[in-house]
Specification:
Helix content is 40%, strand content 19%. Bound molecules: phenylalanine. Phenylalanine binds next to strand 9 and strand 10.
């Protein structure tokens, strides 16, 4: 029996050495050490031996089992490492291949213009204020000196949700809300946001568009402050040699009210298609905050004054970039949008 065992060991070790991959080696393991293998058989047969031989033979079988197990394990480590090495060689990466481009998006032209306007006013010490798009009639109209039935409401056709709630027609209600909240303190804000009007969409009208309103309230705020601010703004947005012109206008919430024109940036004032041969381009509405508006928000118009202005970033973007139809901003045509993927705003 001892001899048989010795032979078995030799045979097993040889097969282990000869196994050329992990699978083959596993087969060897099952064949020799498995439940139906010869070593297990030998252990099972121990019962039939005379009692005095059992310990010696048992120890021998165990030694053979351990030797075969160890040989299996070290061969397994070797074969596994070889398999990984082979895989690494097979799957080597060609680092000289060009990378796949990652398409990068960019800011929408309107966002760009809004941010450029915001940056300018922030640099002048303004803060940004926001308000709800679904607004109360009170803040959209009444607190701005436009009581129910006022004829100037006709200038802003509205989407009413109920008698007292509508989609805001301008960003001016943020003025009224901020003044009410600040309870008499000085204010210097701009309010960017979406507004809604019941218009038929065409090249220059959209039922939804963007506005930026500015408001400054405090002691000694004068019309000349408004003019200086707008002049700087026009030069920043449209070029250092722009001039501005203020024309009398009407808004119920400002008195006096003006429209601001800039000298044409294309022809410099000589007259061309951009300025419709007038040399001037209308940019925004503005004025000194009406005393009634100040009073309604709890300010004393004999102590504080203020100015306000409101503009449409769509119009500014159309002029700046030569866009002919306002609807381009909203229809998400990638051919239009990607034209603005340049770094300058
Ligand atoms: N809210 C006005 C509009 O939408 C613009 C404006 C704002 C005019 C502030 C004067 C002062 O037409």
């Amino acid at each position: 029996m001892e001899q048989q065992l010795q032979q078995l060991k030799e045979e097993a070790l040889k097969k282990i050495q000869d196994a050329s991959d992990v699978k083959e080696l596993n087969d060897v393991r099952v064949a020799y050490l498995g439940k139906k293998g010869p070593i297990t058989d030998l252990l099972k047969g121990m019962g039939k031996l005379p009692a005095e031989e059992r310990p010696k033979m048992g120890a021998l079988v165990n030694v053979v089992r351990e030797t075969v197990t160890e040989a299996l394990e070290s061969r397994m480590t070797l074969l596994e490492e070889a398999a990984i090495q082979a895989q690494l060689e097979n799957e080597s990466i060609d680092v000289t291949l060009p990378g796949r481009p990652a398409p990068a998006g960019n800011h929408h032209p309107l966002t760009r213009v809004v941010e450029e306007i915001e940056d300018f006013f922030i640099s002048m010490g303004y803060e940004i204020a926001e308000g709800p798009e679904v607004e109360k009639d009170y803040y959209n109209f009444e607190a701005l000196n436009l009581p129910k039935g006022h004829p100037a409401r006709d200038m802003q056709d509205s989407f009413y949700i109920s008698e007292d709630i509508l989609l805001r027609t301008h960003t001016s209600p943020v003025q009224a809300r901020t003044m009410e909240a600040k309870k008499g303190e000085a204010i210097k804000i701009i309010c960017p946001g979406k507004v809604y009007r019941r218009d038929n969409d065409d090249a220059t009208h959209s039922h939804q568009f963007t506005q930026i309103e500015g408001l400054v309230v405090g002691e000694n705020i004068r019309m000349s402050d408004l003019k200086g601010t707008l002049d700087l703004f026009a030069k920043k947005m449209f070029g250092a040699d722009r001039e501005i012109r203020l024309r009398p206008s009407f808004f119920p919430f400002t008195e006096p009210s003006v429209e601001m024109d800039i000298s044409c940036f294309k022809c410099g004032g000589a007259g061309c298609n951009v300025c419709k041969k007038t040399g001037w381009i209308e940019i925004l509405g503005a004025g000194m905050v009406h005393p009634n508006v100040l009073k309604m928000a709890g300010y004393d118009p004999s102590v504080v004054t203020g100015f306000a202005f409101g503009m449409g970033p769509e119009r500014i973007a159309m002029l700046k970039y030569g866009v002919e139809d306002i609807r381009h901003f909203y229809t998400n045509d990638i051919r239009f949008i990607s034209q603005f993927n340049r770094t300058e705003a």
